[in-house]
UniProtKB/TrEMBL annotation:
Pfam (any one): MIF
Domain of life of the native organism: Eukaryota
Lineage, highest ranks first: Eukaryota, Viridiplantae, Streptophyta, Embryophyta, Tracheophyta
InterPro entries: Macrophage_inhib_fac, Tautomerase/MIF_sf
Family: Belongs to the MIF family.
Name the record gives this protein: Macrophage migration inhibitory factor homolog
Length: 115
């Protein structure tokens, strides 16, 4: 049930967001090793944001997963998602933070119950 939520100050009008979502979903599933059928990706654009004192393109993301995260996996996820944002949205890797949450099954709801 990995869920990646990314906010950026980049205006997404005219951007092929389907490609960003598809690439991010595939990367999360592959790197964590969970079925893509359970991966959710949320992408929000035009969010007021400053990074390093400027409003140049930047992004902030959070990834929640029930298991599957580790220091090595987190590094791979950070690299993979940053590469997608850089290639698809022109957000430099140095202007992207990604926070990881390893959640308990009982702390995440789905299908009218919890995992």
């Amino acid at each position: 049930m990995p869920c990646l939520n990314v906010s950026t100050n980049v205006n997404l009008d005219g951007v092929d967001t389907s490609a960003v979502l598809a690439d991010a979903s595939s990367a999360v599933a592959t790197i964590i090793g969970k079925p893509e059928a359970y991966v959710m990706v949320v992408l929000k654009g035009s969010v007021p944001m400053a990074f390093g004192g400027t409003q140049e393109p930047a992004a902030y993301g959070e990834l929640v997963s029930i298991g599957g995260l580790s220091p090595d996996v987190n590094k791979k996820l950070s690299a993979g998602i940053a590469a997608i944002l850089e290639s698809k949205l022109s957000i430099p890797k140095s202007r992207f933070y990604l926070k990881f949450h390893d959640s308990k099954r009982s702390d995440f709801g789905w299908n009218g119950t919890t995992f």
